[in-house]
Amino acid sequence: MDVIPKDQLSGALRRGAVKKHVAAIHVSGKLTLLQRKLSNVLLLNAYDTLVSRSRHQIDARTLCMMIGYNSNDMDTLKQSLRGLAETVAEWDMLDEKGQQEWGVSSLLSYAKLKGGVCEYAYSPALAEKLHDPKVFALINLNIQRRFTSGHALALYENCYRFVRTGSTGWWALDLFRRLMGVDQSAYYETFKHLNAKIIKPAVDEINRTSNIILTPETRKQGRAVVEIRFRIRENPQLAILDMDDGEGVRHGPVYARLRDLGVSDRLARQWLASHGEDQVRARLDYVEGRKNVKSKVGYLAAALEGGFAEAGAGEAATAPTPRGARLGRVLEAVKSRTPTQRDADRRLFLSQLTDGALRADFEKHGWLSPLNADRIAGFWDEISPGVLGG
């Protein structure tokens, strides 16, 4: 397994959440799902030095890992970067003196890939807007990775910044179409089509996979829908995906081990919230026992977040139990699948779980889910007969 160099994992990147400027959110509706995730990770990586540095760098493989795109297909990454450079950001807001300011800029002024490193930059004007803390919404990258629809992620970003007020307020349909990136499609000028193809699927995915629940409401003029708003409340079942800024987790032994290893406070708390102490402890044991690893933090990040590294859990025990050996073979089978196949496998397995507790355990732990161990083994035995060794 390749090691991600520590010097390519900046303190900002370890944060696990990105503050997203409202103007950037508003203009990125036309981005694909991959481009939208890519935009968020690039911003997170650059955030601490947005106004002090003119150029930013990130290891290309780390970049793919952070957006959940486990592939060496650099052509797709190039296409996504090209899309960001060709997408226009536009803002219209009051400055600190109360004067109206309008501006326009490409989302990235340039990007290049060289020697396995992605270098990129923002225009100075856009960098200032992106770094202004008064107009930010906090986007948790762990939640972002769960989305499979660009429209759902776009709607989530535009709604999440209103979570404390409980409602987005009324949006004219023309503005809403722009936020979703469908403002130039005649098909979606009809609300029936907009509702069936954009609104309902996006709301359903957000309510199933994120830390908020949306309820759309419409306002009519005569018989025509002219405005829409979204009521917002926290999703108690998936609240674990949101960052807990309390002190409790900081007193645990696993948290202390993460900090001793060099993991930032914020990332340590996010990993513990997302994966649970048992899973993080197991991965820590494995990583700390490895020799000739230059960056144990990067290695641990790959083991916890990157699908290409999950087989490490199967290698961790020198004398695995039969169940442990079976799990290792399952993880090897998962590793051998393409990203598209992995997504389809997860969806298919989830569709077979009718019990809420089983679904929740799988959504939290994935193929490591202890409550579904036997079901997972049976599932993979059907997908790849003989994969479990008998």
Summarize the structure.
The protein is of the alpha+beta class and 390 residues long.
- Gap between N and C termini: 27 Å
Q: What is the structural class?
A: alpha+beta
How many DSSP-defined strands? 10
Question: The CATH topology of the largest domain is what?
Answer: Arc Repressor Mutant, subunit A
SSE topology string? EHHEHHEEEEHEHHEHHEEHHHHHHHHH
InterPro entries: Initiator_Rep_WH1, WH-like_DNA-bd_sf, WH_DNA-bd_sf
Protein name: Replication protein RepB
Organism: Paracoccus sphaerophysae
Domain Initiator Rep protein WH1: 18-159
Task: Tell me what the structure shows.
The protein has 390 residues and is an alpha+beta fold. It has three domains: 1-139, Arc Repressor Mutant, subunit A, CATH 1.10.10; 146-242, Winged helix-like DNA-binding domain superfamily/Winged helix DNA-binding domain (Arc Repressor Mutant, subunit A); 252-383, no CATH class. It has 18 helices and ten strands. The chain has helices spanning 22-27, 33-46, 60-66, 74-86, 124-130, 141-144, 150-160, 173-179, 191-209, 253-261, 265-275, 277-288, 296-305, 312-315, 322-336, 339-351, 356-365, 373-383; strands spanning 17-21, 56-59, 88-94, 100-106, 110-114, 117-121, 136-140, 171-172, 212-221, 224-234. The strands form four sheets. The protein has a three-stranded antiparallel sheet. A hairpin with a 2-residue loop joins strand 5 (110-114) and strand 6 (117-121). Helix 10 (253-261) packs across helix 11 (265-275) and helix 15 crosses helix 18. The radius of gyration is 22 Å and the shape is globular. Mean pLDDT is 75; it is low at 1-6, 240-247 and 306-321.
